[in-house]
Amino acid sequence: MNTYLFLYQETSFFEVVLAAYFMKTKGDVHILSESKNEIHTNEGVKIIVDRTLDEIEPEDIDVLLICGGNINNIHSMKLLYELIRQCHTGQKIIGGICAGREIVSNALHITDFEDNTQTIGNVILSPGNEYVDFALAVGKAADIYIDEADYQETVDYFKLFRRV
């Protein structure tokens, strides 16, 4: 399973780190951006880009996650919207958190969504402060959990802070 995180300058990387950690259990996680330039996140982390928007094909993607941050730093919004729409048509899992939720909902013309983490078909939309719920929902949509007990163990540990 190939998960792609779309990042950009001043992105809020913390919003997708847990989802990336979960998805790594079932495949590879790649960094997607507009250019090969190093990404400088809001947290002060420098990230190397694996692929660019003009290099990626929707067939390469199983899960596409868009995080929040300063979306004014995205210069190829048209290309990103096109990729989101192609992934949606191809029944790929698409997640948007914080400002990424705005990007995904705008690209797919979703106007009726809630203030909490919500799954609409193959799309997960989440406010930035629900990054644990977002990660759990992405994992559930991607069917990464062995069974309900495995899912509950993940919830207990990462959301409820219970030792397992």
Structure write-up:
With 164 residues, the protein is α/β, with parallel strands linked by helices. The chain has a single domain (2-158), classed as Class I glutamine amidotransferase (GATase) domain (Rossmann fold), CATH 3.40.50. Helix content is 34%, strand content 20%. It is built from five helices and nine strands. It has helices spanning 14-23, 77-89, 99-108, 131-141, 148-158, and strands at residues 2-6, 28-33, 39-40, 46-47, 51-52, 63-66, 93-97, 118-120, 123-126. A seven-stranded mixed beta sheet has the order 5-2-1-6-7-9-8, sandwiched between helices. The longest helix is centred in the middle third of the chain and has 13 residues, at 77-89.
Core attributes:
164 residues, alpha/beta, seven-stranded mixed sheet, single chain, Rossmann fold, 5 helices, two-stranded antiparallel sheet
